[in-house]
Design a protein that fits this description.
The structure is a homodimer of 307-residue chains.
Chain A: E1 6-11, E2 15-21, E3 27-34, H1 38-56, E4 64-69, E5 72-74, E6 79-81, H2 95-103, E7 110-115, H3 116-128, E8 133-138, E9 142-148, E10 151-153, H4 189-195, H5 204-213, H6 217-240, E11 245-249, H7 257-271, H8 275-280, H9 282-285, E12 286-288, H10 295-302
Helix pairs in contact in A: 1-2, 3-10, 5-6, 6-7
C-alpha cells in the first residue's frame, strides 16, 4: 500500500520537518519537532518525527527515507560533517546507518542523506515543474542550487551555486568566508537582519517589508537595498548559468509576493540602462514557489530518483 | 577515404581559419584568409578557405563543414545575425544555405553553423579531454563557454557563461553593455589594451607581459591588475558552476605560461584570506590549452557530434 510513498526529513538548526510524499510531490502527512543538537540529539529528534509520521500512517513507515541536512554530506556513506549549527563537527556522523539501526525491526527502510540545499532544489524542481532552474535560497546565508536540463548540478567540488561568496564590491565589508565584499553581505537573511533588526517575535524580513509597505522611508530604503542585492544574485545566475527559471526560496521567501515585487522592480531597474540585460528578461524568469509547501522534505524524499 | 574527416571554419573579424580535422581533433590541413566584411565578403572568404583546404586534399572536401561565427546564431536554420565586426547586421544571413549553394556540384556537404565561443569551447573539450569545463575566452571581450558532464551548456537564452557582464564594482566605469563596473572592464583584451596600448606590431598582451618580465614597475602593476581580473572571472565560474577544469583561451592566451603564472598567483592571493576558497583549489584547476591548436576550427568541425 505504501510502496509509492516516500518519507522526507528536512533537518534544520531549529526544527526537523518530516513529510510523507506521494506521486508528484503531494504531501500525505507532515510532522515537526524542535531540533536537539549534537549527534544523539539529531538522531532522537529525527526518530521522534518518524514516529509521528508512522502514527499518521497506521504505524507503518514507507521503506524509503530521504534526509536533507546542512553541512558536508558523503552520499555514498550517508554521513555528514561540519553541520556547525546542528552541533556536528569535523568527524563524520554516519546518520544513515545510525537511523537505520534505530528503525530496524520496525521497517527495513533505505535511508539516503543529501545536502539540504540540493534537496530543496530538487523539491523546487518537482513543485514548479521546471526542468531547468536555479533555486536561490535566501536563508541565513546566500546560495543557489541548480537543476540543469533535468539533472542536479553539484559541481566538481560540490560548490556549484555558491554565488554568495562572489565578491561584488571592492569597498565592501569582510565576509565570514574571509573575503571582502561578498554578495552574501548584501542579499541574505543575515544581511537583512543587520539592516533591520528583529523586534519581538516577528521575523526581521516580515517586519521590514511591513514597515516599508506602511511607508517608513528607512524601511523602504533598506528593503530596496536588500532587493537590489537579491537582483544581483539573480543576474549572476542568469549570466553564468542562464537557467530557464530562477526560483527564490529560503526563510526570507516567506514574505511572499511583496519580496518578489521588490526583486522584480530591482531587476527591471538593472536592465533599464542595458538592452543586453533587458533582452534576457530576468524579471520574467524569477518566481516564488506557490504556497508554503515543505520543499526541503519533498526534495529529500524524491531526490533518490535523480540518481 | 574522407568519411572520417570533417572541416571546421573559425570565422573571425580579421581572418577566417579553416582546418580539416581527423579523429580525436587531429589537424590534417589548415588554411587561412583575411576576412572580407559583409555577407558577400564573408561568403567569398569562406569559399576561398575551403578551396585551399580542398587543394590540400586532392580537390575533394569532406562532406561535413562546421562553422563557428560570432553573433547570434540560429542553428536550426544555419543563419547568423548581429555579427557586428563582420559587417552582418540585424537581418538573418542564411550562411549554411548560401555556402551550400556555392559548393553544390562540388560536394554535397552538410553545413552547420554554431556560435564561435561554443565551437571553441567544444574544441577545448576535445583537446583537453576534460569532460567538465569552463572555457574562459579572453578576446576583445570576456565570456565563457561551458561543457558540463560532457554536454555543451548553452542556457535558456543562449547566455550561459556571459560572466563578462556581471558587475563587480559599484564604483567602476560604464560598460558597452550599459551597466557599470562589469567584469569585462577588468579582464578582457580591451581592458588590457586600455591599460597598455600597443606599440608597433607587437600585440598589447605580449608587450605588457614582456615589459613586466623585464621589470618595468608600471607593467608589473598593469599585468597584476589584469591577472587579478582574470582570477575574478575564474572564481565566479568556480563558485557559480564549479567545473572540474577552467581553461583559459582567446587571443590574450597566446601569451602562454606567463599569463597562467600571473593568474595562478592572483588566485592564490584571493584564497590566502579564505580557507573556504582555498579548499576549492581554483589555481589547481586552471590551465591553458597546449600549443596553438586551432581550437575554434576543431570545435566547429566536431561539435555536430554533440547533438
Amino acid at each position: 500500500m505504501n510502496g509509492e510513498l516516500r518519507v522526507g526529513l528536512d533537518i534544520g538548526a531549529t526544527k526537523i520537518l518530516g513529510a510523507v510524499i506521494g506521486e508528484g510531490g503531494a504531501v500525505v502527512a507532515e510532522a515537526r519537532q524542535d531540533t536537539r543538537p549534537g549527534p544523539d540529539g539529531v538522531l532522537e529528534t529525527a526518530t521522534a518525527v518518524l514516529d509521528l509520521l508512522a502514527a499518521a500512517l497506521d504505524g507503518v513507515l514507507p521503506p524509503h527515507i530521504g534526509i536533507g541536512i546542512p553541512g558536508i554530506v558523503d552520499r555514498q556513506r550517508g554521513a555528514v560533517s561540519h553541520a556547525v549549527n546542528l552541533g556536528l563537527g569535523g568527524d563524520w556522523f554516519p546518520l544513515a546507518d545510525r537511523l537505520s539501526g534505530r528503525l530496524s525491526g520496525r521497517c527495513g527502510a533505505t535511508v539516503i542523506v543529501e545536502n539540504d540545499l540540493n534537496a530543496a532544489t530538487w523539491g523546487a524542481h518537482v513543485l514548479s515543474g521546471a526542468d531547468d532552474l536555479a533555486y536561490l535560497a535566501l536563508g541565513t546565508g546566500l546560495a543557489a542550487g541548480l537543476v540543469l536540463s533535468g539533472t542536479l548540478r553539484r559541481g566538481a567540488h560540490g560548490a556549484a551555486g555558491e554565488i554568495g561568496h562572489v565578491p561584488v564590491d571592492p569597498a565592501g565589508g569582510t565576509c565570514s568566508c574571509g573575503q571582502r565584499g561578498c554578495l552574501e553581505l548584501l542579499a541574505s537573511g543575515s544581511a537583512l537582519t543587520a539592516a533591520w533588526p528583529a523586534a519581538g517575535d516577528v521575523p526581521p524580513a516580515a517586519a521590514l517589508f511591513a514597515a516599508a509597505a506602511a511607508g517608513d522611508p528607512r524601511a523602504v530604503a533598506a528593503r530596496d537595498r536588500f532587493a537590489a542585492g537579491v537582483a544581483d544574485a539573480v543576474r549572476m545566475l542568469g549570466l553564468a548559468v542562464d537557467p530557464a527559471a530562477i526560483i527564490i526560496g529560503g526563510g526570507v521567501a516567506h514574505v511572499g509576493e511583496p519580496l518578489l515585487a521588490a526583486v522584480s522592480a530591482a531587476l527591471r531597474a538593472q536592465a533599464a540602462t542595458s538592452p543586453f540585460l533587458a533582452a534576457l528578461d530576468l524579471a520574467g524568469r524569477t518566481a516564488l514557489l506557490p504556497g508554503r509547501a515543505p520543499v526541503g522534505a519533498i526534495g529529500a524524499a524524491l531526490i533518490g530518483n535523480a540518481r
